[in-house]
Amino acid sequence: DGGITQSPKYLFRKEGQNVTLSCEQNLNHDAMYWYRQDPGQGLRLIYYSQIVNDFQKGDIAEGYSVSREKKESFPLTVTSAQKNPTAFYLCASTSTRWAYSNQPQHFGDGTRLSIL
Amino acid sequence: QKEVEQDPGPLSVPEGAIVSLNCTYSNSAFQYFMWYRQYSRKGPELLMYTYSSGNKEDGRFTAQVDKSSKYISLFIRDSQPSDSATYLCAMSAWVGKIIFGKGTRLHILP
């Protein structure tokens, strides 16, 4: 079955540590996205990528970094500069190359990041 | 005024009842409307995707769009305990970012 796989499901970060969240899709989708979900705040866009080796900042990119070396993979690194990283992180993708398109996004099952 | 407004709930209804979930929006350029269902500790799952005004039905679910009032609804007939989840509306223009509502928590009481 095609879909988006996020790992790990739960992740703990120590002070000063960078952590990387994995997102892999086998839908052959071009555009991929990272969102952060906090209670009562909805989905906030962190980064998106329309094509391999290209990515753009979303609304809350500070303290995060991404890479897009393969079409199927879009890992997110939460750096030590992100002072409030505790949240539920969701990866999504759309079939069209244009990230800002009207096509619906399909989501993975998320990674919950907590601070130790 | 926020672009998309959605009552956070929780909304509690008895099993078998008809559920009505709603969103209002301010951007008249929005033409594409989506409803997602999100279970606890899971990602959002696309339920309905509609274009412009009118109704779309899929099983027990009906999505309704009233562009003149900038108002969209999701109706769930014969609600089941398995429908208990958070429901997110989302919308976009022809081009532009998809804007999500904050979600309504729904509890179906057995």
Distance N to C terminus of chain A: 35 Å
Biggest interface reads:
A-B, 21 and 25 residues
Indicate the overall shape of chain A: globular
Helical content of chain A stands at under 10%
Describe this structure in words.
- The complex is a heterodimer of chains A (116) and B (110).
- Helices cover 0% and strands 50% of the residues of chain A.
- Chain A has strands spanning 4-7, 10-13, 19-25, 31-38, 42-51, 54-57, 64-66, 76-78, 87-94, 106-107, 111-115.
- In chain A, the strands form two sheets. In chain A, strands 2, 4, 5, 6, 9, 10 and 11 form a seven-stranded mixed sheet that branches.
- Chain B is mainly beta.
- Chain B contains no helices and eleven strands.
- In chain B, the strands form two sheets. In chain B, strands 2, 4, 5, 9, 10 and 11 form a six-stranded mixed sheet that branches. Chain B has a five-stranded antiparallel sheet with strand order 1-3-8-7-6, with no helix packed on it.
- Chain B starts with a strand and ends with a strand.
- In chain B, 35% of the residues are buried.
- The mean pLDDT of chain B is 94.
- The chains are: A mainly beta (116), B mainly beta (110).
- Chain A binds chain B through residues 4, 6, 40-43, 45, 90, 92, 98, 100-102, 104-110, 112, and chain B through 8, 31-32, 34, 36, 41-46, 49, 88, 90, 92-98, 100-103.
In short:
Helix content of chain A is 0%, strand content 50%. Chain A has no helices and eleven strands. In chain A, the strands form two sheets. In chain A, strands 2, 4, 5, 6, 9, 10 and 11 form a seven-stranded mixed sheet that branches.
Structural descriptors:
heterodimer; A: 116 residues; mainly beta; seven-stranded mixed beta sheet; four-stranded antiparallel beta sheet; 11 strands; 0% helix; B: 110 residues; globular
